[in-house]
Structure formats: C-alpha cells, structure tokens
Amino acid sequence: MALMKTLVVFSHLRWNFVYQRPQHLLSRLAHRWPVIFIEEPMPDSDQDRIEHIAAAPGVEVWRPHVRGGAHGFHPDHKAVMQRLVAQSLADQRIQDYWIWFYTPMALPMAAKLEPEGIIYDSMDELSLFRGAPRELIDQENALFKAADLVFTGGRSLYNAKKTRHANVHCFPSSVDALHFRQGTPDHPLQQAIAHPRLGYCGVIDERIDLELIAGIADRRPDWQIVMVGPVVKIDPAHCPQRPNIHWLGQQGYDDLPAFINGWDVCLLPFALNESTRFISPTKTLEYMACGRPCVSTAIRDVVEPYGHVVPIHPDADGFVAAAESFLQLDAASKAQHDRQVADIIARTSWDATAAAMADLIAQAQARREQEELPVANIAAELARASSASSASAALSA
C-alpha cells in the first residue's frame, strides 16, 4: 500500500468564510501533506466545473460550480460532484490520498472515490443546527462506520460521540497566541467608539442571544457594544438596533486582534439551545490570548475548563454585574487574573493540536499498511445506514 500523499477535505464551510478550526488545522497539516479543500457547490452556474484556488501554502481550494439550484451538498448534486471531483483528481494525478470530512452530507459525493483512509473531524453537532437536512443523521452513522479516525471539536461533543467509534480523539478549540498578542493598536473602524467597550467577534446566527445583547445595551447606555462578524441564517432585521450597539460586519482574521485589544470586556453571549449544546467557542481562547476578560452564558465547553476565570451568567443583569467587576479591578486582582489566563494559553496551541492529529493519521496509515486492512466502502455504508433507518422507522410506525 502506498503512503498517503494528499489530504482531500470536504467542508460545509468555505475557506474564505470566518477563519476557524478547518483553516487553522489544515494550513498546518499542509506542511506535511498537500491539502485539497473541496467546498460546497455554488448553485445556478452556467456550467458544471471546479474552480481551483491557491488559498494558502500547500492548500488548494476546489470550489464546484453546478447548474442545479439546490444549496449545500444536496443529493441533487451527487452525480455531477462525483464526476467533477474524480476528474480533477485524475487531472492532477492524485492517487494516494485520505479523505477528511467536516460534514456527513458530503459522504455521497465521495462514494466512488478510493481513498487510503477516512477521517471525520466533528467540530459541531450539525444535526441540531437550524435547517439541518433529515438525512444528515443517517449519513453520519455511515461516516462513523467508514472512518478510520474521528476527531471532536470539544469535550462535550467527545462525550456524545466516544461510544460510536473505536478511535475517537478529543481536540478542543485552540489558539494562535502569537497572532492574538496583547498590545495591537486599535482598529480604525472602532477608534471613534467611546469606552467602556464590550465586544464580540464571530458568526452571528441562531446561536447568539440577541435579547441578551439588547438587554446589556439598555441597562448601560453609556457602554458601547461592538459586534464583529457576519450575520447568517437569521434576518438581519432581528439584530437589535441601539445607539450604543455597533454592527461592524465580517472582518478578516488578521484584523481581529486589533478589534479585541480595543475592548474592555469580551462577550460570549450564546443562547442556550440545541445548536449550542456541544459548541466549543474558538473565540474564548482568542480573547484570553489578547489579555481581555470575558463573560459567558453557561456553555459547557466554557464552564468546565474556564469557569474559574470566566464568569458565567444567564442574563443581562449578570453580564452587566460581571463586566462592572472587571472594569473596577484593582492592579493586584488584575495581575492575578492575567496570570491565570496566561497559564491557560501556555498549555495549548493550534500547532500542537495539528501535530498530534498528524501523528494519529500517520499511525493509522502505518497500521493499515502493516495489517493490510481494507478501506471501508462508502457506498456500501451509506446503503446500510439508509436501510437501517428505514427499518427503524417502519418498526416505530
């Protein structure tokens, strides 16, 4: 068996969207193996084709354009996606590769490929997100059967998945501490905004408690709330409008330290709902790396590892009280908080996370080679999962 030469990744997130877990990990793994990052199709194109984009050293994004009108890795696109991906692999003479999935919905798109192994990086519980397709659960069952390795994006997600596969590993969100260093000059877009400033950066969707944001703004109209990030999957008209709330939209990853360093207190204002049950917010450590204090709702993957330095509150009154406490810290208390946060940051990095993942992949490849283990047949696992789901539905009817 040939050693892997390429990682072929199927992702529901676009490379040029918010810079998060996939970009952090794959840009580092690309130092060891070339990465092909296959995005969801762009619908309603005039022709079926794949756009090739040099995204980062060692990373090439393949952006499919399809004539069909459905969004996402929709079943309607299966045949054309199988053909386009197979043809692009053949054109580039890519033969010895592993497939890495960020979403089970892409599994049928790869059903005719012949990888050396399969990885599932489960960074979110996608089945609980708004608009999740009903077939996602069946396809995740098939992916668990087919995968050689499963990674999870946080402790709570690991606990939910660990009994479903024999080789599951917990890799929570980490941080590039050098990128999010303290002392970065204030960003021009917020220089005219007065202090105190409370800030949030990240995707703004059904996971954000917009009533909480409005409540903080109403209780302290002299405070300024800065919201940085794209608004997706919700109506922007639902975002509360106040003189002291500033919606600055999506900003580049390189700009985030300049925003965060200009805030007095950082916010983790997550709604407590199905879509946030298993999240591990990357921004928690990014705030800490900038030396900023933060306040959160009771997200499990914030409470358990960081509850000793991150106050946890359910409502605007609690957030306001915690922020006021941070704003009034004396020098000795601030120094103690800073030492606790620095200790957390010193124990983690995306470099170390990617290196540990790479070692597990290499070990799995070596074991497969030594024991001559067959790679799972994706099409067969999909068929079995669908059949099992149909039988279960018939029994419960």
Give a nutshell description of this structure.
With 397 residues, this protein is an alpha/beta fold. It contains 12 helices and 13 strands.
Give a structural overview:
The structure is a single chain. The protein starts with 5 loop residues before the first strand and ends with a helix. It has 397 residues and is of the alpha/beta class. It has 12 helices and 13 strands. The protein has 2 domains: 6-174 and 350-396, Glycogen Phosphorylase B (Rossmann fold, 3-Layer(aba) Sandwich); 188-346, Glycogen Phosphorylase B (Rossmann fold), CATH 3.40.50. It has an 8-stranded mixed beta sheet, sandwiched between helices. Strands 11-10-9-12-13 form a 5-stranded parallel beta sheet, sandwiched between helices.
CATH topology of the largest domain: Rossmann fold
Which structural class matches the secondary elements?
Answer: alpha/beta
The total domain count is 2
The separation of the N and C termini measures 47 Å
Measured by DSSP, the beta-strand proportion falls in 15-25%
Question: How does the overall form come out from the CA principal axes?
Answer: globular
CATH superfamily of the largest domain: Glycogen Phosphorylase B
Q: Quickly give the CATH architecture of the largest domain.
A: 3-Layer(aba) Sandwich
**Helical content band:** 25-40%
User: What topology, given as strand order, has the largest sheet?
Assistant: 3-4-2-1-5-6-7-8
Helices, by number, come to 12
Residue stretches low in confidence (pLDDT < 50, at least 5 long) are: none
Q: What's the rounded overall pLDDT mean?
A: 92
| Element order: H for helix, E for strand | EHEEEHEEHEHEEHEEHEHEHHHHH
Number of E-state strands: 13
What is the rounded Rg? Answer: 22 Å
Major sheet: 8 strands, mixed
Assembly context of the chains: single chain
